[in-house]
Amino acid sequence: MTSAKMAAVLPRTILWIFLLVTAFLMLFPVALTLLGSFKTNLEVTTGATIFPKVWQFGNYSTAWKAANFSRFTWNSTFVSAATTIGTLLVTTMAAYAVDRANFIGKRFYVFLQASTLFITIGAVVLRPQFDMMIGLGLQKSLWGVVIILISAHASIFFMLIGFFRGDPARS
User: What are the strands, taking DSSP E only, across 14-160?
Assistant: First the structure.
């Protein structure tokens, strides 16, 4: 192999080694968790082995029944679907209106949306959001969670504004 070919192959080999090591480090905990799900409780807490001694395939059905996973699965599916649909409806209408219409306070509204991209207010707004859900009577409903999640998508708003500005049929 010539030195020119070696110079071209070496960086690529180093890159692949780096990527494989990174992939291993990322996937190893997932594999341990998956393999641990087939172990007994005693094996999980005391074992230093990767593979279970006896594969416990019944762990999944036991967990499904004992922990009411069917209800949790339904809740997650409902919240995800309702949030996705609601976010698309709200942000599409807002982005279309901001892009196409001229109104007083338009620049200020866009500024407010942009400021939410850079400021993580997480725990600061948690209590006021909960108080608002109590005021609406939604504190024991998944709809309260959906409403809170729909209101937190400024990045999608800006993606849609960019989409509308790129529309060739724009008037």
Answer: none
CB 74 within 8 A of CB 66: no
Q: What is the amino acid identity at position 52?
A: P
Are 153 and 117 in contact by the 8 Å Cβ rule? The answer is no
Phi/psi class of residue 137: alpha, beta or left (left: φ > 0; alpha: ψ in -120 to 50)? left
Handedness of CA 98, 99, 100, 102 (dihedral sign): positive
Residues of the chain with pLDDT under 70: 1-4, 6-7, 119-122, 170-171
Question: Is 0.70 topped by the overall pTM?
Answer: no
| Dist CA 171 CA 167 (whole Å) | 9
The domain locations on the chain are 3-66, 69-165
